[in-house]
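Obj: model holo form, ligand = magnesium ion.
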Amino acid sequence: MSRISIVDVLKSDSSPGEIQVMGWVRTKRDSKAFSFIELNDGSCLANFQVIADATLPGYGEFIAHLTTGASVAVTGKVVESRGKGQRWEMQASSVELLGKADEDFPLQKKGHSMEFLRSIAHLRPRSNLFGAVFRVRSRMAYSIHRFFQERGFVCVHTPIITALDCEGAGEMFRVVTMNGEEIKLGDEEFFGKPSYLTVSGQLEGETYACALSDIYTFGPTFRAENSHTSRHASEFWMIEPEMAFCDLIGDMDMAEAMVKYLVKDALENCAEDLEFFGKFVDKGLIERLEFVRDRPFERVSYAEAVEILIASRAKFEFPVEYGHNLQSEHERFLTETHFQCPITVYNYPADIKPFYMRKNDDGKTVAAMDVLVPGIGEIVGGSQREERLDILRENLVKHGLSEKEYEWYVDLRRFGTVPHAGFGLGFERLLMFVTGVHNIRDVIPFPRTPGSAEF
Ligand code: 4AD
Ligand code: MG
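Output (holo structure tokens):
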């Protein structure tokens, strides 16, 4: 007999009859004549109740070992449940212990702190919360591909090792080879020159957009920022679409449509898990997600945003000043307090942005945009790219970058240049928004942050 997953059993309209399920014991209650076993196989939040009669063959041997965390295979008939809260339960005809769980299995009791659960990142997916987080993560990854594939975008796998610093912030991890203790640098370097883990697939993505029109990348990116916040990770995943024949407006339209699509998809397809987050993590979650699904985003230029912040007379740790980056407290004030909805801020001062962004006609700002959402702040960053050869060359010089190194990037402007635009959606930031989970370390399986790369 082959295994049926618990989610399939629980959602069946009629009894699937005699079947086998496998999973891990969450709890067990014994009475004289039988035991109730709550089984979970991670396919859904709900446990499946199994009733094991004391008359079952081998009962005396296996029952003592069915402690929390132990794994079992159970065969039996699915019958309508007499208890409340579940439709189906199983009357077991055979129970096979697959693996005992030692007494010190750490997820016995509820109410562990998130910090403690991070220290057992190999076991935390067996808890309700983390099971739910990683099911939603999987669904969102699938839906992201679906969103782009439905619109004819081509998926491009951009490299993880690169010699360029796309964002120009110098926050990169260097890749070196080891020979025992000796690190090879200079001429002996593996690639003959310094190489790094990518901070963004954008520049390589642009080359493919300038051939296939609409492309996207979805992969891991790395940043050696020494940020100790709940929203920064050293390794995170990013979705980066790049669209030829597209300007800033088209770029903002696509970013907003994508966030809405994913929120709607989560509400429809992860309802049980979201309901759980709404109960135990963030009471306002469902309402906020429905709001984002149904209402348009506000759009505001950087200059207007600065005016709003100054006029608000709100107290900020970092002063608001035209020409400076918006700090996370400013972003959150705009989206949470002032607009009380997601907003897209556009046209930032050129001086605080990377070399590749398209200069606006005012000569001072660039066609950049960030999408900000309540509770998190920036979730998307993007721009229209500078497609004019002469201005791109000027920008390279201004940013102290050598044209020789960027020759291939400049070539895209020499051979059939086109207006094009794109953005990066931080996958973990999106997951924090959709689940209400407050710390980025809790939406990625094995978080890497300054000082921590366990597992
Ligand atoms: O705004 P960023 O730096 O933009 C880029 O990298 C562009 N090259 C993207 C593009 O236009 N193709 O990063 C994009 C997004 C941010 O909005 C944020 O959601 C996320 O990536 N992000 C991080 N997420 C987690 N930890 C970090 N340290 C992050 N840094 C950026
Ligand atoms: Mg950004």
